[in-house]
Amino acid sequence: MPMVVLIAPYPKLKQIADSMTDRYTVAIRTVIGDLGEGLALAQNALLEDDAILVSRGGTAKLIREVLDVDVIEIGVSYLDLVNTLKPYMGMRKRVAVAGFRALIEYAERVCKLLDIRAEYLPVDDEAEMPKRIEQVRAMDVSCLIGDMVAVRSAKDLGIPLALIESGPEAVAEALDKATMVCRSLSLRRASDLRLGAVLNTVREGIIAVDKDGVVTHVNSTARELLGSEAMVGVLADSILPGNYVANAMAEQHEAFGMLVELKSRRVALDVTPIISRESVEGAVAVIQEVGKIQDMEKKVRRQLNARGLVAKYRFEDMMSHSPVMCSCLSTARQYARSASSILIYGETGTGKERLAQSIHNESPMREGPFVAINCGALPPSLLESELFGYEEGAFTGAGRGGKTGLFELAHGGTIFLDEINELDVQLQGKLLRVLQEHEVMRVGGIKVIPVSFRLIAASNIPLIEEMEHGKIRRDLYYRLNVLYIRLPPLRERPEDLIPMFEDFVLKCALRDGDIQPPSPPPEFFFKALQIHDWPGNVRELENVAEKWTVLRRLLDAESAAHVILESLTSSTKSPTTAVEDAKIIAGAAIPCCGSLDEITSNVVRAVLEEEGGNISRAAKRLGIDRQTVRKKLHL
């Protein structure tokens, strides 16, 4: 790890720094040296150690200019200037203030603030200071106040001298900055080591250069292709023919696919300049033997097509304590290992796409894309162009260059066709051919494109019924229904109801920035949830959990439970006893139809009416401020 070296122009500054070194975990060494002596100490520190330099005033300026290195400068705070200048308040005779220009500017502001009469003698270079001191001899001043350069030059002046010193706060600030730089440098070096390890695992030859075209990184594959002359510190164009690296950086444009000869080997060379804020900071060159180009192109195409087509969910995300659901997930895990088509049946909101994504992520196709589309969401003509793609000019409005279809995008992965029962009969015939022949023809195209994918289809209506009604082709049904999974509705999995509700509440609370989820609902609320039919299944339960999370911020637990239970409707059951109990506990009924915002507004309005229109009392009762009450009333 680098070391912090503090070069103090005077002993007291070193003493202050020494009293602070125990605070830091990085190594800190302090030495005394002003100007030329400090410069020599800095040179030795850079030679002996990997040093982060800290100094003050003229010494810091000299080190920075001569050695061309960064120096963290110990400043002089306004408090330091006030402490130095305060004794001269009210003096009739003027004082002289000499030093580097930045210090003089600060001192002038403080002198005006303290009503101190002063003559100011700024310098930009140490060599100017003797001339300034000579000017002081001709002045009628009581003393000279300045930095180390000024005080040292004025030792024979014959008047009192006062050194403007840096206090503990300024030293601590400089050491804080130095330790941050030290840690950042250590992290960067560790990152460089990791980068080198990563680059050496890449099969392509990689060469990175800086803005001057000098090699900064070269991996083992590049050394094998280029020979021993490929090393850090040499010019890239001295080991790569054609000046391709320099040209790419000068033109600020990538250069791909150049064929060059390297030691009787024909390789492909790609160069990409590194551009930051319109300035070239370097470049990366990739070299690969021509025999491997085809594999590389396939990999690039697959990555481009799969961009954004990623399955997020896994089986671990589908929590369950229900035997029927556990059996379903176990079957799905077994099916995932094959490449056969899968048909999922489940009511709306049961999580069919989540199950499909979980199957994909545990299948042999998990490295490929996951492409999903709802067949009932698009008209047949548009769905056809989405599934099969189209050629340029295939129809009015067709995009320039045509479009890749979803079957092509799913190559090497999985395609999920939701609501397959809504698929148009004509498209069913085209889909059947794709499944049988594993090839697709774009709309308006004349050539077939081979594709390989795993099909997962889903329906919220039993597909065999749709086949019997003539809505699904019989031959397509048997092609789809190779492996069948029935996803049970929520009413068949009562064991999952409460754990899933609590999990959804926690996620909603965290999403809204709450540190802790709201307190659990009363017992009658859970009983009512267990009696409810859940026509919307898991999606409906998630909606209820979100309502609870929001309403619980406005109401007590029983009132929030009452509002939510009133909003639940069931086509097969009358209002439950638990709902009636909730009405009694919560008081007068609150209108609860409409959106969550409308329900919230009704709640606020009801509380305001009970408080006789007093907004302050209503806000206190609801646990919100007056402005929020007004906002909720004007939704």
How would you explain this protein's 3D organization?
There is one protein chain. The chain has 635 residues and is an alpha/beta fold. It has 26 helices and 22 strands. The relative contact order is 0.05. The chain folds into five domains: 3-75 and 170-180, Response regulator (Rossmann fold, 3-Layer(aba) Sandwich), CATH 3.40.50.2300; 78-165, Rossmann fold, CATH 3.40.50.10660; 202-290, 2-Layer Sandwich (Beta-Lactamase); 315-488, Rossmann fold (3-Layer(aba) Sandwich), CATH 3.40.50; 494-633, no CATH class. A five-stranded antiparallel beta sheet has the order 10-9-13-12-11. Strands 15-18-21-14-22 form a five-stranded parallel beta sheet. It has a four-stranded parallel beta sheet with strand order 2-1-3-4, with helices on both faces. The longest helix has 34 residues, at 168-201. It is flat. Strand 1 (3-8), helix 1 and strand 2 form a beta-alpha-beta unit.
Q: Which band does the percent of strand residues land in?
A: 15-25%
Number of helices: 26
CATH superfamily of the largest domain: P-loop containing nucleotide triphosphate hydrolases
State the secondary-structure class: alpha/beta
